[in-house]
Amino acid sequence: MTARSTEVDIRSGTGSAVRMESVSKVYGNGSATVRALDNVSITLNRRTFTAVMGPSGSGKSTFLHCAAGLDTPTSGRVWLGDKELSHLGETALTKLRRQRVGFVFQAYNLLPSLSVLDNITLPMRLAGARTDQPWLREVVGRVGLTGRLEHRPSQLSGGQQQRVAIARALVTRPEVVMADEPTGALDSRTGRQVLELLRDLVDSLGQTVLMVTHDPVSASFAHQVVFLADGRLAGSLDSPTPETVAERMTHLGEW
């Protein structure tokens, strides 16, 4: 059977933050072959909050990794902003990710020996770049960490540690923040606060966020939800609610 390319265009915002063109990702050989992504084409515009959902094994994490330049597609092309990734070597990709992508994961990935301030500014030091102090103060205020910059991660709650991770993702002024199950380790109340923060960063600062989640409530904080099934795009949903997302998810197995 010939692979079918399904294209979704998220049209709000101004300009493209991420674009994937006929992207496939295949792991293994012969009978052990797994097609994690199957001819995916999608455009995600700037100043949008997009959630990616699908059943286990649908390709959500592979989608995020290819979009962020963490993984190389077997075929197809990926753009971050105006930069096409397929011809870049690993050194150039690493530099591009540092400059254009902020990462937030379920595990906070903070260095326990460093203060909150040092954890936030670590990407700038690794890049040998000077931290923009007014922007740093703006970010720290936005995520609610003013007054806690000298604390160590062990002195913070889980929600506060995730806020540190979000601030670290924002300090380089990335074109897009990639979040993989960012509330998975948090209780529902704290998780809601983190999701409200991510949505506010988009609405008030014009940040772009791409989030993988399995939770319809988390997805409802996004402007739109993109669905994956068996490595292929299975449509999208604008202005989602927990109910409409859950209803759509129940049909993905039939898609």
Q: Which percent range fits the helix content?
A: 25-40%
Number of distinct helices: 8
Strand content: 25-35%
Separation of the first and last Cα atoms: 16 Å
Give the strand order, joined by hyphens, for the main sheet: 7-8-9-4-10-11
Average pLDDT, all residues: 91
**Segments where pLDDT lies below 50 for 5+ residues?**
1-6, 9-13
Can you tell me the overall shape? globular
Overview of this protein structure:
It is built from eight helices and eleven strands. It has helices spanning 60-68, 90-100, 116-126, 133-142, 158-170, 188-205, 216-219, 242-250; strands at residues 6-10, 16-27, 34-45, 49-53, 75-80, 83-84, 101-105, 176-180, 209-212, 224-229, 232-238. The chain has a six-stranded mixed sheet, with helices on both faces. A five-stranded mixed sheet has the order 1-3-2-5-6, covered by helices on one side. A hairpin with a 6-residue loop joins strand 2 (16-27) and strand 3.
Q: How is this structure best summarized?
A:
The chain is of the alpha/beta class and 255 residues long. Helix content is 33%, strand content 27%.
Keywords:
255 residues; alpha/beta; 33% helix; globular; disordered N terminus
